[in-house]
Design brief:
transmembrane helix; single chain; 77% helix; mainly alpha; transmembrane; 261 residues
């Protein structure tokens, strides 16, 4: 059973509904995380360590801002997701490039860490549903799980597209097909919580493969648009969608306030 939460400890659910816009922004955030991290580390010349330190600091600030709110604020939430995406990418890249941990090992390690997080979350809260993120502890479990899904997705995506030689184009096809299969399983009666988290993990390697396909040179199997163009285009779409969600939600919130009054 789900543990009872006192009224004083509750806040409004701070995670948006998993609509089509949610998944589009999530995949594009993943792509921007992949291309943005590569741009800062390689093209700007900051290196993995400096880029990672900067992004961890920004993520800490975003999480602190997110923690201060007591409801879902679109721009704060998606800024945090974007930074988690970058940090998750950097974490996997650091293990692979600097510590020379194999992608097989890092994929397995992140899978175990995510499973342990889910086990603890469920043990303490009795649910893994994103519709019940109404306490600080649940929010903490949620963001830890999100970070690990990005790290796991990065490792699994790199394992498939690079180590196993799937390539960027077939990586998009493969992970897109797995997400479609997950959506079909949901429609056929699979659990909403399970299918959500499976899809959340899979959208990370899909977004990464898509980002690499668009940004990498033709010599390496990409389309050659570059990291700058790819990041800016996707970031512009993210900003537009977040603005749409923000302004679209405002009238609904005002209507609810008027009804209560």
């Amino acid at each position: 059973m789900t543990p009872t939460v006192s009224a004083s400890a509750r806040m409004l659910n701070k995670v948006p509904q998993a609509t089509l816009i949610f998944w589009v922004i999530k995949i594009m955030s993943t792509t921007v995380g992949e291309t943005g991290a590569d741009y800062l580390a390689v093209h700007v010349g900051l290196g993995t360590a400096v880029t990672g330190a900067i992004m961890v600091s920004l993520l800490a600030a975003a999480l602190a801002l997110q923690a201060r709110t007591r409801r879902y604020v679109p721009w704060i939430y998606w800024l945090t997701v974007l930074l988690v995406s970058i940090v998750g990418t950097q974490l996997t890249d650091f293990l692979t490039d600097k510590l020379e941990v194999s992608l097989y090992a890092s994929t397995a390690a992140f899978a175990v860490a995510l499973s342990a997080t889910f086990a603890l979350w469920h043990a303490f809260e009795g649910t893994l549903s994103i519709r019940t993120i109404v306490t600080r502890r649940r929010e903490g479990f949620y963001w830890l799980a999100i970070l690990l899904t990005f790290a796991l997705g990065t490792a699994a995506g790199d394992l498939a597209t690079e180590a196993l030689g799937l390539g960027f184009d077939w990586g998009v096809v493969a992970f897109g097909s797995l997400i479609a299969a997950t959506a079909l399983a949901r429609r056929l009666g699979a659990g909403a919580v399970l299918t959500f988290w499976v899809a959340y993990v899979l959208t990370r390697p899909l977004g990464a493969a898509l980002g690499d396909l668009l940004s990498q040179s033709r010599e390496y199997g990409g389309l050659g648009f570059g990291t700058v163009v790819t990041s800016l285009v996707f970031l512009s779409v993210i900003v537009a969608l977040v603005a749409f969600v923000t302004f679209n939600a405002a009238p609904a919130g005002a209507a609810r306030t008027a009804q209560r009054a």
